[in-house]
Design brief:
Strand content: 35-45%
Strand order of the largest sheet: 1-4-2-3
Oligomer: single chain
Radius of gyration: 12 Å
């Protein structure tokens, strides 16, 4: 199965900020960079993404192939 991630789950999030990528996606296979139309909403420490194919906003992220355990 495939997973789109954004924010701190991206391996390319930031060299100067902690990333959750190494903790959650260490066994995942990186497929490539991607973007998807939608909206980000602040939920405090973590943003929420809502898919909207009509949105002019593109959220940048990455695609990974993951297994059920991941």
């Amino acid at each position: 199965m495939y997973l789109f991630v954004y924010g701190t789950l991206r391996k390319t999030f930031s060299p100067h900020a902690p990333s959750a990528h190494h903790r959650f996606l260490a066994d995942a296979i990186f497929c490539g960079n991607a973007s998807i139309k939608g909206h980000l909403y602040s939920l405090g420490n973590y943003p929420a993404f809502v898919l909207d194919e009509n949105s002019p906003t593109l959220v940048k992220g990455e695609i990974y192939q993951i297994n059920e355990r991941t």
